[in-house]
Design goal:
Strand order of the largest sheet: 1-2-5
CATH class of the largest domain: Mainly Alpha
Largest sheet: 3 strands, antiparallel
CATH superfamily of the largest domain: Intergrase catalytic core
Distance between the termini: 75 Å
Number of domains: 2
Shape: globular
CATH architecture of the largest domain: Orthogonal Bundle
Number of strands: 5
Number of helices: 13
CATH topology of the largest domain: hpI Integrase, Chain A
Length: 308
């Protein structure tokens, strides 16, 4: 398809074809949707720009216009999604020189973020509010996410056979397509396929809960699931416990934060969360890592002062 492209073709048309050839069927739907959104923005920002007119200046202007109404990180993502197509166009001789070289990424000042995690005391209060009965419920789901740090879609995809009770582990190898009617999907990335260790109390509880359930069926999904439904259940419990209201994803942050404060290494936390690299973990929990580094400085100084 791309062999028919000419230098005089519109930039956004080329990008649409590039997505169809190189991305369609090769990436998850949620990622594909981001590329399609970038395509729509490109058409909006540069509706008449031809491939032969894509220069460092015109490309930078697209980034600047996008940055006017987006935060810097979002603009960076937009740039990265365009860059792959642009570099291919350069290789094919459709664009004379790499216009993405030395691109400047701008963006609006990030909004003040809502609280993302609970401290250990608040988490204990939340867990004590849960109604953990003899049958699977969203309260059990909340407890499992809090104790494992798994993603919402990973939790929905859990089946009885994913538990290895004798080795105290939970296998994460798939997600549940809750946004588009259900069904199993691959994990977010290859690093997300992992085994998460679970404590003995959780082993005993879930071995009883799932013993009579179908081996290959999701234990938490009975009908169409909405993220907001579970978040509403969690919000009610947060209010009852008189603690900050967080989302299910906030429980994942809570889990990671407690591990870091307990002294677990960044590498181990990254593997447990299924992050593609430690860089993701470091960026996400930078504020906690900085706080821990401050404590480390105090510890170093106390240790040195004892060397007399």
């Amino acid at each position: 398809m791309l062999n028919k492209v000419k230098q005089t073709d519109l930039f956004y048309d080329y990008y649409a074809q590039w997505i169809a050839v190189y991305k369609q069927g090769a990436i998850r739907k949620v990622t594909m949707d981001k590329y399609l959104l970038t395509q729509r923005w490109l058409k909006k920002l540069a509706p008449e720009l031809k491939l032969c007119d894509v220069t460092r200046i015109t490309y930078q202007q697209i980034l600047n216009d996008y940055a006017d109404c987006h935060e810097r990180q979002t603009t960076m993502d937009f740039h990265h999604q365009l860059k792959g197509a642009v570099l291919d166009a350069v290789d094919e001789g459709l664009i004379e020189r790499d216009p993405t070289r030395k691109a400047i990424i701008k963006g609006k000042t990030p909004k003040e973020k809502k609280i993302k995690y609970l401290n250990q005391f608040e988490l204990h209060k939340l867990l004590s509010e849960l109604e953990l009965g003899p049958e699977i419920s969203w309260d059990w789901f909340i407890m499992l996410v809090a104790k494992t740090g798994i993603r919402f879609s990973e939790g929905l995809a859990i089946t009885p056979k994913d538990f290895d009770f004798s080795h105290q582990s939970l296998s994460i190898s798939k997600t549940w397509n809750y946004k588009d009617g259900g069904g199993f999907l691959p994990t977010k990335n290859q690093s997300s396929v992992r085994k998460v260790q679970i404590d003995w109390q959780t082993v005993i509880q879930f071995s009883e809960l799932v013993k009579d359930l179908p081996e290959d069926r999701p234990i938490f999904v009975k009908k169409k699931v909405y993220n907001s439904t579970v978040n509403d259940v969690l919000s009610r419990h947060c209010c009852s416990a008189n603690i900050p209201i967080i989302s299910v994803h906030g429980l994942r942050h809570t889990h990671a934060s407690l591990l870091l404060f307990a002294g677990v290494s960044i590498a181990s936390v990254a593997r447990r969360l299924g992050h593609a690299s430690m860089t993701t973990t470091q960026k996400t929990y930078l504020h906690i890592i900085q706080e821990l580094e401050s404590k480390d400085v105090d510890l170093v100084m106390r240790s040195l002062s004892g060397l007399t």
